[in-house]
Design brief:
heterodimer, A: mainly alpha, 0% strand, B: mainly alpha, globular
């Protein structure tokens, strides 16, 4: 045994770390670059237009111009008039207020119901879990539109709040399922156990410990539920079961479409619909930004 | 061999039982809903004549329609009648609800099943085409357009199609299932189906296509794909013969879950194109508060959906033995 040349070995202490190449730190600018700017810009124009509808509208939305029925777009009526003689340009901005409001109220209700139910479902024992899940599945097995028909038929004439509640009641199931599966993944963690031992109640557990962990997973569903609610409202109003004609919304404007088809007045159908579709697309692309990154392993195909 | 068959039969019976329980619960929910809803059923049935009726006549009328007695008695009466195939009179049409609906079911099934099969046919084709070239220009364009198109409201798409193809170009009829007196003419029926089918396919295809694409991409990242590639198989062969087989249970599950979704779409397409089907009838029934009709419609659609999901569960157990252990819930999130 000869002398050990210490310079050949590296002494490894407690704070030894593998060398890792330093990752380039993401600056705020890189983060901002990834935002869907075009969608945000278009959506803010639409939202601002709806909020300040009083200033940009050229006609009173509640006046029926009976000597200007079904007029094509012109310099006086930018988007033309419908079969009741209303100025489309004005009622679209006012209608947008209602549609967006239904979207946001619906989203808030869906989120509250979905998270509450999902958390309860995720935290109960196995028997309760099965019962609660079957309950959701049972409702899920009725087609959404039929459930909406049942509820609207049962409640009579609608207003903004009641239609939002109805839409929320029929569309929280998907969110509840996701929240449940997320909660079940983290509920056996030590900090949840510790919180339970220290006697925190359900709401404390949900708001302090569970919510921060599940927010990334549910962000996409929460934001796209705005567009689900807007679509549902316009569909119901078009079917004649949602908002009545005198409450302006994009759906109730489109409920005159059958008459427009007979008269072949394309602007009554296409223009409000385009506003609707553009809004929905913008909201979706913003929601997509929050979607969880998918599997980044290399594709082996 | 004998043992295996018994096992299968046992599962089948268990699922039948599950079906009955689910239908029972569904019927209770629907019944309570319909009875608690405002709007007097007597008013709906007799119209204005109700104002001139005496108390005795009113009592007799509500007894005839099964509206007297406490709620659970009413429900048991209704259930007994329903089990013998009698779902009560339609309040609007004054004939048994079943007679109102039965001629419409065939129309809805033609539209619904064709749309359902075509949606999944195109979804799988698109998904495979995208999965073969992940992140290529084609894939990215299809993903972008697909997401945008999925959020176009179905009724508006239908209106625009009518505006273009039947009002202005006059290529296709805008409403109905067949022209008067031509119910047996297949060509005429197809002509009426094209526009509703287009709406159904366009608004549903990418929702499922995208899910299948992502599942395929997840599958392509597994080790056996690398092995197959090392063996020298072509991309196409790996995708169809290896990945697809492993994704098949998911697709079948997805097809079962999608039944209510497609049914909703059918209902909207039926209303827009004024197609005589049960979805269109459901909207009418909701407008005129015809609860007996609505209850029957919900029960029929519910039965359809629940039996589809049980069928999917059974099929999966047959084609994929792994499902027996996991209880058939591979599809989470």
């Amino acid at each position: 045994m000869g002398e050990v040349d210490e310079s050949m070995f590296e002494l490894v202490g407690l704070d030894y770390k593998d060398w890792t190449p330093q990752e380039k730190k993401k600056t705020l600018r890189d983060e901002l670059k990834k935002l869907p700017w075009i969608s945000i810009a278009i959506l803010s124009v639409i939202i601002l237009g709806c909020v300040f509808a009083d200033f940009i509208c050229t006609h009173n939305p509640s006046i029926y111009y009976l000597d200007h029925l079904n007029e094509a777009p012109s310099s006086e009526f930018f988007f033309g008039t419908d079969s009741l003689g209303r100025d489309l340009y004005s009622i679209i901005w006012y209608g947008g207020r209602t549609s967006l409001m239904v979207g946001f109220i619906g989203m808030i209700l869906v989120t509250v119901i979905g998270i509450t139910y999902g958390c309860i479902n995720g935290l109960v024992n196995n028997t309760g879990d099965i019962v609660l899940q079957r309950f959701v599945e049972l409702f899920h097995s009725i087609p959404t539109i039929l459930l909406a028909l049942l509820l609207t038929a049962a409640t009579g004439t609608q207003n903004v709040l009641s239609i939002s509640v109805i839409i929320a009641i029929i569309s929280w199931f998907a969110l509840a399922r996701i929240v449940r599966s997320e909660v079940r993944q983290i509920r056996n963690n030590d900090y949840i156990l510790a919180a339970k031992i220290t006697g925190s109640n359900f709401w404390h557990l949900v708001t302090v410990h569970l919510l921060p962990n599940i927010i990334p997973a549910i962000m996409f569903v929460v934001i796209s539920s705005i567009s689900t609610c807007i679509t549902m409202e316009s569909t119901l109003s078009f079917l004649g079961l949602g908002l009545p004609l005198d409450i302006l919304s994009w759906g109730s404007i489109l409920s005159l479409a059958n008459r427009a088809l007979l008269l072949n007045t394309w602007w009554v159908i296409v223009i409000p619909g385009l506003f609707l579709v553009v809004t929905l697309c913008c909201i979706t692309s913003i929601a997509n930004y929050f979607r969880k990154e998918t599997n980044k392993k290399p594709n082996r195909l | 061999m004998e043992l295996k068959r018994n096992y299968f039969l046992e599962k089948l019976l268990k699922n039948m039982l599950l079906f009955c329980v689910a239908m029972f619960l569904l019927s209770i929910i629907v019944f309570v809903f319909a009875r608690l809803a405002p709007g007097d059923p007597l008013q709906a049935f007799y119209g204005d004549a109700i104002d001139t009726m005496t108390q005795v006549e009113l009592a007799a009328a509500s007894a005839r329609l099964g509206l007297d007695g406490p709620l659970y008695v009413q429900y048991l009466d209704w259930l007994m009648n329903a089990l013998s195939g009698n779902f009560g009179l339609s309040l609007q049409y004054k004939i048994p609800a079943m007679d109102v609906i039965s001629p419409l079911i065939v129309n809805t099934l033609i539209l619904g099943i064709t749309a359902y099969l075509l949606v999944f046919f195109f979804a799988i084709i698109l998904a495979v085409a995208c999965a073969l070239r992940e992140d290529s220009l084609f894939d990215r364009i299809v993903c972008k357009i697909g997401t945008a198109v999925y959020f176009i409201p179905a009724f508006w798409l239908g209106l625009v199609l009518i505006l273009i193809f039947s009002v202005n170009l006059n290529w296709f009829p805008s409403s109905g299932a067949y022209d008067f007196g031509m119910s047996g003419n297949i060509l005429n029926r197809i002509q009426h189906l094209i526009l509703p089918l287009t709406v159904m396919i366009v608004t549903h295809v990418w929702y499922y296509g995208y899910m299948i694409r992502n599942k395929l991409l997840d599958e392509n990242r597994k080790d056996y794909v690398l092995l197959a590639k090392a063996k020298g198989l072509t991309k196409r062969a790996i995708l169809w013969k290896h990945s697809m087989r492993n994704v098949a249970p998911t697709i079948i599950n997805l097809m079962a879950i999608s039944v209510p979704h497609v049914l909703s779409g059918t209902a909207i397409a039926e209303v827009v194109f004024n197609y005589p089907g049960i979805g269109n009838m459901a909207v009418t029934a909701a407008k005129i508060h015809d609860y007996n009709l609505m209850m029957l419609l919900v029960i029929i659609m519910g039965a359809l959906v629940i039996s589809c999901s049980i069928a999917a569960y059974m099929t999966n157990e047959i084609i994929d033995p792994r499902m027996k252990d996991t209880g058939g819930t591979l599809w989470e999130k």
